[in-house]
Amino acid sequence: MSRLWAISDDNPLGAYRILLAVSSPWQETIMTSLEQAGISSLRSNTLEEAVRSLELDQPEFFIFSDKFSSPDNLSDPLLEYIQGMSAPQRRELFVIFISPTAKTGDSLSAFSQSVNLVLNPDKLENIIPLIDESWTFWKELYQVFIQTRFQLTGKH
To answer: What percentage of the chain exceeds 70 in pLDDT?
Structure first.
């Protein structure tokens, strides 16, 4: 099993690698919330850094904002990268997408974007409880599938 499925529920975010690719001032708000909770994270300053970290560092949580590093483009390269991940790779990553057009916690929007949680920037002060709630729901929903698949095939 991957680390994402093996850590206890006591302080889930504190035990994981968290990668941020978030525009200012949202980045500062998130960093402050994480630091106050004793949670460390890795920050990407460019699109290239974010992709390289996703490929090489394999974080368990990825928090990114709408059109990070490409505010004028119609497409979102990070969102496209996440949507293009293989199923086994994507299962090992819990993705939080921040967008001013998002309705926080909307499952249909999250599903259509291929992310686990969508957040409106207005809710960033409550990011940790929102992630905890969403992650718990996601884990309860898929853990039996992941465990059964692992037992039958030895693959995640």
So the answer is: 88
